[in-house]
Amino acid sequence: MTAPLDPNLERWRLILGEAGDACLGGQSLGQPAAGRDAALDWLYGRDEELARREVRTRHGGDGSSQLTTVDWLDQVTRLFPKETVERLERDAVERYNIPDVLTDPDVLGRIEPNPTLLKAVLRTKHLMNPQVLALARRIVATVVQQLMDRLAVTVRQSFSGARSRRPSRFRQARNFDMRRTIRANLGHYQPEQRRLLIEEAYFFGRHRRQLEPWQFILLVDQSGSMVGSVIHAAVTAACLWGLPGIRTHLVAFDTDVVDLTSDVDDPVELLLKVQLGGGTDIARAVAYGAGLVDNPRRTIVALVTDFYEGGSPSSLVRTVRRLVEQGSHVLGLAALDEEANPVYDREIAQQLADVGAHIGAMTPAHLAEFVAETVGR
């Protein structure tokens, strides 16, 4: 009876692929590991870099090459944990551009919706026939709902009320007044045990913010590199839509400007209308946003862009300066997504910061908190 393969050797063999056969010492992979190896080879074996470096070559008669995309999805779902499956699917879409991941109805019907697939759908939806687009809508709807459910919690908390300094008899952990409690009980400190005995605890009260009308104008660059920010802008606008005291606008732009405010309450439909790609005229978009302002001192203009201006930088700077001088809060966000890792034109961003705009990157939750703090002042 053959001794089972050392798990560490098996792991290294799966990492190295065919080039790692020597590390097995003549032993063979067990059945589950062989299945994982075939699934990994189906995907990563097509990497041209491997052939160029003579690390591993694919053979036309190999069994792994005969897998269909549907078979492969079934196999990886059965053999790998969820996190690994999501990574494999992401590489299939983004790294290797396997077409039937997004064009085969059988594949779309089986694949687990996730943010990577949502981005891919938005990039390729114009190439889909109606049947495929109907299935792709499921991915859009599922992921958008997941994002909204997460963000809605933050929005509710941010807008539910501010802590007042008045004491309250309603005892709730999040309203615990630590400083007052410590001061009131310092007489009960036990230095030997380095312990403070609490005889009476104090809590803050809460009052609802009395919100005066504000405008929140969200201008989103819909160039291809900003797809993640477009998704989160749509979700953020939908979560803020209808809140008392806030009038939300959502405007997408490339070289043209499209006001999507009428679709904010349906982010799925909104995202399916977005046309990614094309040039970028930020100045034109900001000028449009400035034209929406009713009361500058009660307006937040959030510009989501990589700041690579295809229009007039001087016109952009002038318009932002004018908004700031009128009293509007201007945010320039180089990224609006869960990673908030920006890639942007630092020179243009610095010019906008010099005239008073706040420049940075935010997650949607941080943006919602910023809006809540600003309108609650």
From TrEMBL:
Organism: Rugosimonospora africana
Domain of life (superkingdom): Bacteria
InterPro entries linked: LolB, Uncharacterised_CoxE, VWF_A, vWFA_dom_sf
Matching SUPFAM superfamilies: vWA-like
Coiled-coil positions: none
Pfam families: VWA_CoxE
PANTHER family documented for this protein: OUTER MEMBRANE LOLAB LIPOPROTEIN INSERTION APPARATUS, OUTER-MEMBRANE LIPOPROTEIN LOLB
Domain VWFA: 213-372
Entry protein name: VWFA domain-containing protein
